[in-house]
User: Which sequence fits this backbone?
């Protein structure tokens, strides 16, 4: 009887311990949200949440702050990176799942995973010391000589090509998010039932027609989820872009100009913030980033789950 | 006939683009890897491992302080993060599988996995650095543990789900209580997968820089005191690469090479364990 009781006690203890551990996720999310909110209350009080969001001020001396410039940089660089990365990533996924001979599928998958495993600080360093000089010496002058002469496009290629700019940062970010999108898309493509593919081939469809009309529609929800996941990564990426952005608080349409993102602003200025209002404004930036990526990621997840349940 | 030819040409063109995209991916991978190896291998001698940073201009400086600091921070983070993640994953896979609570925790963990790591850094700064008045190795470890918990929780849950119910039922039929079934049957069945998950979680935090910037900060001195600011390879890379000296740049490259090799090694080990345990996938 006594031993039975001991078992009950151990069992209950294990149950409670594991339950508390699982609650830690909720505690962390609420804790982060609450802490960032409390720390940024000073800035919210002075500027108002939406006033802060749409203000282009960033003047530590006069203690006037706003998120618009950093938000602009974040959105612009993420957008450019996604435009460059998504087609390449889906191309890679199609190659690995549909075209590659079997013996090559494993190594190709490993290579993509290695690309994902390289830490962002290494991407950042490589970007600063290797990619940026190439961009400023060869790529950007060439772009200016061609597109920079056209009437509308010249806006995007104005300025001196330094290599430390929006274009370089978005290329590095694009290389970073290719493997995420590619591996999720590949997994989704691999789930296509081969019977369906074979019946399309049986009707005389070419390989591309099978991919276009069978594989892609079948995988579109997972692929979309993967794209949003990569978007969330890109928005929150710090070190890969911190080296090559310069961190200038302004809105610029030239791809050869320096801007700042929310993450780069935090990385560069957080430990240097000397006034309470400055620090509080940085916390408000962090809160905006947190809310934005939380909604994006949780939304993508729920969307994928709901669509899966319908099918 | 013409239509068929044009369809075939179209198919060929699009598929060529896919091959091109793959070549582009391989090009970047090899470009970055080879560049890091070429630039990093020169400074990666005994000095790098056994000496602390020397004043600029003096030869023989190394990054022993950052190497040891990083090891300590990651080790402590693992000791905090793995048990919490493991137990949490156990709860939602074993005690309340299929319930809406398990689904909510699953979605929230997935979200936490991708929350910007710099936000975690600002959070830990507010609760562990500002109230205590100084940066510390502990704060760095806690920040990394926060990033680690959802990763371990999620992989543990997935791996426990792979263990067939009949195995548990057999143990229940022998009169074993739930916790014994978990420790003696399910954990054993899922051990390789859980180990892989832990390895991947470690490889995830080893490369993190952003959460350490405001927590463990950096220090040019060798220290094993977790109550002080602590050097780490990643933050040192950031500082050295932004600095003006060629010797700093060389050491930053060497540190990048070391971290990249370590993470690639962990990733490949994880893949190897999965293949060896669960066969070809």
Assistant:
């Amino acid at each position: 009887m006594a031993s039975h009781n001991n078992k009950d006690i151990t069992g209950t203890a294990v149950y409670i311990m594991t339950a508390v551990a699982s609650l830690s996720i909720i505690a962390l999310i609420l804790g982060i949200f609450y802490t960032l909110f409390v720390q940024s209350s000073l800035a919210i009080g002075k500027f108002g949440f939406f006033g802060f969001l749409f203000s282009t001020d960033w003047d530590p001396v006069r203690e006037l702050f706003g998120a618009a410039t950093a938000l602009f940089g974040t959105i612009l660089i993420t957008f450019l990176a996604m435009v460059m990365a998504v087609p390449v990533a889906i191309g890679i996924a199609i190659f690995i799942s549909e075209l590659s001979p079997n013996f090559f599928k494993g190594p190709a998958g490993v290579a993509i995973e290695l690309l994902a495993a390289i830490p962002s600080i290494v991407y950042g360093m490589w970007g600063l010391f290797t990619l940026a000089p190439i961009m400023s010496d060869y790529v950007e002058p060439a772009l200016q000589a061609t597109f920079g002469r056209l009437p509308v496009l010249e806006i995007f290629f104005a300025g001196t090509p330094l290599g430390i700019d929006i274009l370089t940062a978005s290329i590095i970010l694009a290389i970073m998010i290719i493997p995420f999108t590619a591996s999720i898309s590949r997994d989704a493509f691999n789930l296509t039932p081969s019977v369906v593919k074979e019946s399309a081939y049986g009707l005389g469809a070419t390989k591309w027609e099978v991919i276009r009309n069978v594989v892609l529609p079948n995988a579109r929800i997972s692929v979309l989820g993967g794209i949003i996941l990569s978007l969330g990564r890109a928005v929150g990426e710090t070190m890969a872009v911190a080296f090559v952005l310069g961190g200038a608080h302004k809105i610029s349409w030239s791809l050869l100009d320096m801007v700042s993102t929310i993450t780069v602003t935090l990385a560069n200025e957080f430990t240097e913030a000397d006034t309470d209002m400055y620090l509080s404004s940085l916390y408000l930036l962090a809160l905006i980033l947190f809310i934005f990526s939380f909604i994006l990621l949780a939304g993508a997840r729920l969307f994928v789950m709901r669509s899966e349940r319908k099918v | 006939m013409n239509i068929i030819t044009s369809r075939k040409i179209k198919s060929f063109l699009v598929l060529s683009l896919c091959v091109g995209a793959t070549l582009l991916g391989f090009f970047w991978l090899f470009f970055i890897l080879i560049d890091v190896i070429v630039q990093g291998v020169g400074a990666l001698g005994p000095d790098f491992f056994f000496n602390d940073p020397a004043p600029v201009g003096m030869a023989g400086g190394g990054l022993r302080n950052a190497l040891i600091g990083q090891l300590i921070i990651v080790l402590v983070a693992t000791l905090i993060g793995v048990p919490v993640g493991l137990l949490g994953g156990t709860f939602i896979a074993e005690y309340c599988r299929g319930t809406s609570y398990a689904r909510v925790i699953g979605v929230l963990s997935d979200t936490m996995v991708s929350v910007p790591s710099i936000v975690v850094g600002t959070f830990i700064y507010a609760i562990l650095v500002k109230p205590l008045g100084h940066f510390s190795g502990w704060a760095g470890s806690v920040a990394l543990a926060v990033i680690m918990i959802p990763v371990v929780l999620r992989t543990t849950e997935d791996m426990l789900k792979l263990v067939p119910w009949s195995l548990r039922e057999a143990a229940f039929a022998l009169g074993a209580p739930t916790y014994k079934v978990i420790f003696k049957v399910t954990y054993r069945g899922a051990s390789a997968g859980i180990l892989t998950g832990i390895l991947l979680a470690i490889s995830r935090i080893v490369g993190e820089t952003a959460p350490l910037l405001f927590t463990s900060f950096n220090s040019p001195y060798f220290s094993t005191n977790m109550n002080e600011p602590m050097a780490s390879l990643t933050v040192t890379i950031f500082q050295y690469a932004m600095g003006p000296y060629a010797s700093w740049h060389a050491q930053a490259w060497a540190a990048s090479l070391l971290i990249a090799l370590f993470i690639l090694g962990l990733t490949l080990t994880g893949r190897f364990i999965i293949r060896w345990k669960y066969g070809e996938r």
About this structure: The mean pLDDT of chain B is 90. Chain B is about 75% helix and 0% strand. Residues 61-278 of chain B form a domain with the MetI-like fold fold (CATH 1.10.3720.10). Chain B touches chain A through 88 residues (CB under 8 Å).
